[in-house]
Amino acid sequence: MEPTVLQQECLSRGLILKLLYCAGLALFAVLFLWNFWSSGPYALGLNAFVFLSLFFGFFIWALYKEGNYEVYDLLWIIPFILMIVSFAIYDNPFLKAVNIMAMPALFALFYNHAFLANKKTNYWNYEFIIKILVRILSALGHIGDSAKAYLTFIVPAGKTKERVVVRVIAGIVIFLAIALTVIIPLLSSADAVFYGKVQAVTEWLRDIFSTPLVYKIFVFAILSVLFFAMLIAWSKPFDYNENEDRGKKADSIIVGIVLAGVLGIYLLFLWIQLNRLWVGVLPFNFKETEELVKSGFWQLLALSVINILIYFFAYRKTVSFVQKLLSAFTVASLLLLASAGQRMGLYVTYYGFSYEKFFASYTVLYCAIVYIWLIAQLFRSKRSNIVKFLVLLFLWMFAMLTIFPVEQFIFRTNMALRRLKDSRIVLSEMKMLSPDVLVVVKKNKEKGLLDEGGYDWNEWIDKQEQIVSGKAWYERNMTNMVYAFSSNASPQ
Fold it and tell me: What is the DSSP annotation of 380-402?
């Protein structure tokens, strides 16, 4: 989209269709996603799937129309399709909450990157991150252009009087919003007499503006303008030529000393902890077990950050000997990771899965892939795009996780591990699970497999059934439908 389009007095047919589509997306969100504010992630089912499909498809269409789509883009498009589909399958509130936060940021990053001419070979460094962030935030700078485009569409340029009326109304609305939310509350807190004089008027205005309809109209207008502003900013040509930094070298002596020192500390740690690294049996006391496992896990996360930073400063910028030190450091980190993974495995075997332990285990897998990949890159002659690999790996692993039946896996695995000798699994700890396991919980309860522990699973079942029955038809997902079908098919 050319930047001069919005400066024209008359909107083209294509521009009008885009305005209408963005307004349609905003209207759909207001009509079918509104319950999210009261019900949270449970209100996101078929409605979220349809909205995200329409939104994502629209922007991919714009990418194609601008001539920037390539088969290479499927590398990031496919994971987003999986994440979108997951809303139509599961209830898992934890994954949906993470998805809501992660998806917009990841989409903004990869969609803008898709407009780069050299996107296949572009190196993701500090300068690239700054450039892409500036481009993403540029959407805020186009909000004015977007609003003007909608104003031009609603009131054509030739109708000067009507435009003045619209602008006057807009000015009054903005003034009232500022006065009611900032100016009058501050003055009222400073002077009780002033508060008494304006109280009746402010309460009357708040009653008008606090109605659900006014809220929805306001949100509809904001989303329409925002969606179109994103389209304007992100669908423009984007050219970024990285500064040539391959010739820049880090001080090999300084980096070598730092690497050798840190490596020495890790080797000393490994030697001192040798008798505890490969734990065969966990302590019976839960707190002692938790401390033993989590200490190794947080070491893993800290080492991952340190490892990435070291690669930024040392990778391909020092002499051969220092690169060998870097390899040794990464191998030592991998050994600690193996220890943490083994402890987590024992922890799960004895105490079963929970959300925390499942995602911690998945993090161990992610870091293991990263460490092995980083070690392999030191034996390649070609420079590797480290940050890009880390983000792409996260995107794919998270996308696969969203369509994986996490809660079914947690429940079924815990039921299987519970049969092992010396198992310390407490079944009632799985009460944090969502309606995704409603069918399997009822089946196990009917078989008498959930009677231990004294927990009343009827209470959990009633709560989950209320969640499902309280949903509008467009908020349900495939798991809810399977449960409804199985309930209707089962004998009464």
Answer: -SSPP-HHHHHHHHHHHHHHHHH
Confidence class of residue 437 from pLDDT cuts 50, 70 and 90? very high
Fill in the DSSP letter of residue 73.
Answer: G
Reduced to 3 states, what is the DSSP secondary structure of residue 238? strand
pLDDT, one tens digit per residue, over 30-56 is 999 999 998 999 999 999 999 999 999
The 10s digit of each residue's pLDDT in 444-464 is: 988 888 877 678 899 999 999
Extract the tokens encoding 488: 């209707």
- Cβ within 8 Å of residue 473, ≥6 positions away: 46
For 356, the enclosing helix (H) or strand (E) is helix 355-377
CB burial of 72-111 (b: ≥16 within 10 Å; e: otherwise) equals ebeebbebbbbbbbbbbbbbbbbbbebbeebbeebbbbbb
Half-sphere exposure of 260 (CA within 13 A, CB side): 8
Which amino acid, residue 31? Answer: L
What's the pTM?
Answer: 0.83
Burial 195-205 (b: 16+ CB within 10 A, else e): eeeeeeebeee
Could you give the CA distance from residue 413 to residue 430 in angstroms, rounded to a whole number?
11
Contact 132, 238 (CB under 8 A): no
